[in-house]
Structures are given as structure tokens and as C-alpha cells.
């Protein structure tokens, strides 16, 4: 019981710092001081979900909110979470034994369970699911199978054409990444997210894997635990921009809290160096020094691009789920419109993010992946719109199809030829084709709606 209370206290501090690192991006910025109290009215919880998802959520606000408004806000948040899909299972997130009234009452175990679910889904799952190298590594890690949390997701991930499913869920993926990229080369054994991190050496190993020149591993070996922990957390914050979610005294104990350590360690995945991309990212195949220019983006720009790509990927998953939702044609149009509005709200941000910073005008790897994600979700929404229009009663279905054909004709790029007469001929031919289509559809409408 004492151990449980101590771990809950650590989780409360860690989770509060994690939440505040994201609420700082909210407009206006917000600060949570007491997790169990500040979450009760649901206002900060909804603000957090807005920052993480990039979506606007309805929220009851004001100084005179009553309990009924609190319950409504928490209900909105829980419903939003249940509508999201796990990056591993591809199925909706399950909130086990979490309800609005328990959150409004500030029950510690329920509040911590909710926040952990958010961290697991929005940070750990999202980041570990994009580690293609892990999918091909040996799965002979039987020592990782023990002491798994009941909140962990251990189902197979969403299947991809070019990669076999990663077994073991987000915890195993994160631990395997640490072992293969950081600790293995130093003969440092890391079996868990608890006692293995007590000395601080594992944190230094992760930093060393990302920035080899920052850490003198020979110097830190054998030093007191808290001295190592303090320096590692400070180094990660000042050099990599990773918020210090943990305190040395949180980790230098017999059984450090695994969820807190996982929350902190997962942040390092946002700072991975560029690597070769393969067909797992659609059909895009790029190398940093190949067809794309060397990455001259700042650390913050690269982080922003990766978050933008994650948002676009999630919007595509939401679109897929919405298309599978049963409902009337009017309801389907409303779902489509909502997703389309969310996408258009990001258009200027995406256009700004895709401005080349390279001398040769080429995009960096992160920019290219954002461009591909944008084009993919745009095409999906366009196809869905066409499908909805074709479901309209005649002759509106024909008119809708024609409008899409006309828009497609206007979107087609005409290559400027060296010979101007060839270009003029191409433009003239396109205009004539469009004119013929217009006349045909005008006749169809005239027959259907006689004066």
C-alpha cells in the first residue's frame, strides 16, 4: 500500500509536468497546478486534447460552472477519446472503469488512469508505431514479457503492407528501441522501465545514442546515482529540449514507477536523427543525402513537422472510421464536412511548413512526409465527397459527378512547352473538352428540369 501511494505521488508529479508541457502550446497558455483538482471541470482536459489532436472540441466555460457542466465537459473528452483508434490495434481506445463522475470527484487512481491512457495513446503509441526498424528485429526478448501493466496494449498493430506486425505493444517497442539503439553497444543491460534506470546510466546511453558528443560515458560510470540522474535530466533539457518530467529522487528508489519512466523516455523518440525511409511510408522512398537535400531545419521545426504529420495521419484514420459509420446521407455529409473543415484549417500551416529551406529547392525528409500525408488525406476526402454526391437522387447525382470532373480538369497541370504553339494547343484542347462536358450536362439538367 505504501509503495502504491509513493508511485501515485510520482505519477501525479510526472503527469502534471507532461500535461503542462503541452498546455504551454495552448492559446492562451494554461498551467495545471493540482492534477486531481484542476481536471475536475474538464476545461484543461479538453484544452489538452485540443493541443494533442489539433481539433476544436466543445467546452462549457465560465466562472460559475456547476457540476452538471463539469460532467458534460468530462463526457465530451471521454467520448472523443473513445472515438480515436489505437495505432497498434486499429480499433477504438477502450476506457476501462473510467467514467465522468469519478473524474469530477477527483478520484486519484481514476484520474491517473485516464491521463496514462492519453499519454500512452498520443505519445508512446504514436511514436513507437513509426519505428520501422523495430519490426524486423528479433523477437527473442522473453525477459520483456513479465510485469506488463493492465493498461498496456498488447494486441497486434494496424497491419501495413510492407511490415510484419510488431508483437508486444508500445511498452515492448519502446524498450526494444532503447536496447537496440542505446544500451546494447555499451553492454548495459536494461530489462524494464524500473530498476534498470536507477543508476542514470541508461538515460545517458539514450542521450549518447542521439548526440554522441554530449556524453563522456567513461566519466559517468560508477558515479552516485543521483548525481548521474540530475546531470542526465539537465543535459537532455538543455541540449535536446526534453522537459524534465522526473526528479532524481523519483528514480533512485528500489522500484521506480514504470509509467513515469516510460513517459519521460518516450520523449526522446521525437529527436531521432533522420533515417532512410522505405515503402512503409506509402510509396515514398527518400534518403537524406539522396533525392532530398540535407536537412537544414532546426530541431523545433523538425519536431513541428513530425507532429503535423502525426495529426494528418490521425485525421486520415478518423476519415476511414467515419466512412465506415452507419447513418443517413445527411449524417455522412456532416461527418465529411467536419473533417474537411479541420483539414482546411491546417492548409496555411502545411503550406508554410513545406517551404523549402534547401539551396537546391528540395524538401527535407520530414517535409516530404508531411506533403505525402496531406495529399493522401486530401485524396481520401475528395473520393469520399464524390461517393456521397453520386448517392444523391437523380439528377443531382449526375450534376455532382460533373462538378467533380470540372474541378479535376481545373486542377490538372499543363506543362509549359518550349514551343508556345504547342502549349496553346494543349490549353485549347483542354478548354474544348471542358466545354463539351458542360454542354452535355446542361442538356441533362434541362431535360430533367423543364421550364
Automatic annotation (TrEMBL):
GO terms for cellular component: cytoskeleton; meiotic nuclear membrane microtubule tethering complex; nuclear outer membrane; sarcomere. SUPFAM superfamilies: Calponin-homology domain, CH-domain. The keyword Oxidoreductase does not apply. GO terms for molecular function: actin filament binding. PROSITE patterns: ACTININ_1 (PS00019), ACTININ_2 (PS00020), CH (PS50021). It comes from the Eukaryota. Residues 305-332 form a coiled coil. One of its GO terms (biological process) is nuclear migration. Belongs to the nesprin family. This is Calponin-homology (CH) domain-containing protein. It comes from Maylandia zebra (zebra mbuna).
